[in-house]
Design a protein that fits this description.
single chain, 337 residues, mainly alpha, 2 domains, three-stranded mixed sheet, 12 helices
Length: 337
Amino acid sequence: MVAPENLYSVKASILFVATQKTVQEIRASDSPMKWAAWFLLFYPLAAPFYAYTRRNWSVLLNTLASIFAISILWEVLKIFIKTVWSYDIDSNSLLDLLFTLMVWVAIAIVGHKSILAVVTSARSDLAKDVVRNPASLPENSSIPPQFTRSQRSVSMALSSFSRLLRSKKRLSYGLGALLVVVIGAYALYTSTVESTIKSNPVLAAVSATGTTVRIKHFNCGNLYGYYDSASNTMEICTAVHDNQLFSSKESTIRHEAWHLVQACSAVKSKDDEWGEFVEVNTPLLNGKTLNDEELNYISENYDQQSQSIEKEAFLAEFNLTDGQIISAIEEKCYFPA
């Protein structure tokens, strides 16, 4: 027996349970467009709220995966542009704004599509429940307890569409995961290669002078590397070295570092006008010579004015140690403040 004073609360509880919507019904009544707008405006709050109240984490995972994929692609794009065109995207505020817009657009689009899939699946499941058990339909439901032939056709079509959507979804997840792994692996590889090359002690000494050091992976042609005195920039290309069995990045680094020593020898301070190269005439190279093949290579690939500079750089590359080149950099390029 229920005490009279508790009868009202019991009736209220029964009424609440009877009128409360199931999670499936809540999902089916959602508007993908409205939720996409909420995601666009308040994603950090709206996405977890949707996942918790709808008992569905796929929408949150899909949007987070899209953000992660765009971030990885953006990092790869920055590396590609920096290596091919030597342009640093990080210094451009408009491109940073473009990246932010891409992220929010992806959140809105992926959120809309994911919620639409959840809504479609929920409505299909509710329709199948009605077919199996018409008596379970609430009295105030707008869906009739008995289906006509056309309504059954619509229900079957929705069910087929839902299965097709889920299969395509699994395929897209697999391809997306594969793409993220490949891009992530490539980004990790290039960053590892760059950090390894830049850890070369000669390049570390070059960087310590204030020279910009870049590692280039594409669009090098036959150029192993170069030092530009006017911009005080040194580039080392990985692609050409990787295609040559007996080539050495360390050898190229010594060659280009010696060009830096030649540029430093042409001026007396950092305030002077840079752009010229002069021979260092170090005693360390006295008596050192190049063979006929190397001399022919220089005469065929460099103009007459540059040949003496290149001869000395090749001699330094072939005959000096890393320590001797570092000492020359410290002697010629560390100007007094």
